[in-house]
Amino acid sequence: MANICVCARFRPLNSREDGEAICITRSDSQSFSIKDEKDKQYTFTFDRVFYEDSEQADVYEHVGRPIVRDAVNSINGTIITYGQTGAGKTYTMEGGNILEADNRKKGLLPRVVDELFSAINICGETTAYEIKLSMVEIYMERVRDLFDLSKDNIQIKEHKGNGILLSGVTEILILDGEEALTNLCRGISNRAVGETQMNAESSRSHCIYIFTVQKQVTNEKRVSSGKLVLVDLAGSEKVDMTGAKGQVLEEAKSINTSLSALGKVITALKSKSPHIPYRDSKLTRVLEDALGGGSQTALLCCCSPSLSSSSESVSILRFGASAKHIKASSRVSIKEDIDRKLDISTVKDLKLQKILKKLREKLDAETLDVILEEFVMDGLLSDPTTSMISSHEAIITSQTISSWKEATQRLVNTILELKREINVLKEDNQVTKEECKIMRQVRKRVKAKLRQANLHTIYNESTGTEFLRQKPSAA
Ligand code: ADP
Ligand code: MG
Question: What is the pTM of this model?
Answer without folding.
Answer: 0.69
